[in-house]
User: What shape does this take?
Amino acid sequence: MARGSIGASDKLRHFRVSAERPAATAIDIAARAIKSGGLVAFPTETVYGLGADAWSESAVDKIFRAKGRPATDPLIAHLADVAQLADLARDVPDSALELCRRFWPGALTLVLLKSARVPANLTAGLDTVALRMPDHAVAAALIEAAGIPIAAPSANRFSRPSPTTAQHVLDDLADDIDVLLDAGPTTIGLESTIISLVDDPPQLLRPGGVPLEALRRLIPDLRFEPRFLHDAEAAPAPGTLLKHYSPRAKLLLFQGADDAAVFAAMRAEIGGDRRVGLMLSDADAAAFADLDVEIERLGANAEQAALRLFAAMRALDRAGVDLILALAPEERGLGLAIRDRLLRAAEGSVIDV
Ligand code: AMP
Ligand code: MG
Assistant: This one.
């Protein structure tokens, strides 16, 4: 269904389901929508996905149109069973199966050589395909009931912060989806980690829910070279687009060894006519309690910050701030993925204090 078509929102069926034991009726209706070429938004442990039949070129095309996503940005196909790997990928190395055993279901996406059956638009014309088995009972039940792999990027409009609640999905895509399975907030809050096993040595393409350290225990030579590109056409790997996961407001990202100096640099940006919002850990927020600014608290640790990051960006946009100030976390554990998302929102630059 085309974006904004008249009466489109009337067709949306919104089901609230248990995150652990979703009702079979809701799952069946959603699975039928997928099988008949429709769009279903569903929760995973990372973020909400916008799902369609991965075997159907026309259903996959609906995803690109609904999101306003460039055709050069490939999608991830979601599986309910490792056995489905053989349908979508060819020449699967042993290392892939080992990673599946250790990390699936979970927030790890593997890029492998694609099988001939995979439609070209799913992979943006590449000879490789990205695959993941989500660790969420609703996602698993849906894929299982549909009986086919489900292509699903994050259920947000292109370049907006990813959706971690059903409300975020409705805010972006209410007119475009046939079914919404609403199981409350997601449990990780950041997208999956993507690694390419087509490259030798294997390469981490996007940091995410599974930390780099955990992967290096299995693949010691896993390469990671952060790339932030301004131009989709120039991207050597898809999805390295710079302006991504972004709030509407301009975001300034700070870092420095001396907290007091960093806080002073941030304070210098506050004042005048601009409405300023802050995204800070609970501890750091205390240093700004005297100011008349919007503060989104990211909690006490990286896990909490991951869960709240995208919701905080959306909340500050809703509050109408012109400028968002944030602190770059350390590059370990989930901090690496949080930093990556903040850097993209800040269009690639960090202010070193
Ligand atoms: P999203 O589903 O919105 O989290 O985005 C999926 C991302 O997966 C894309 O933006 C790419 O970064 C990545 N991806 C999907 N397929 C491939 C592929 N064949 N090669 C490299 N990266 C891929
Ligand atoms: Mg996305």
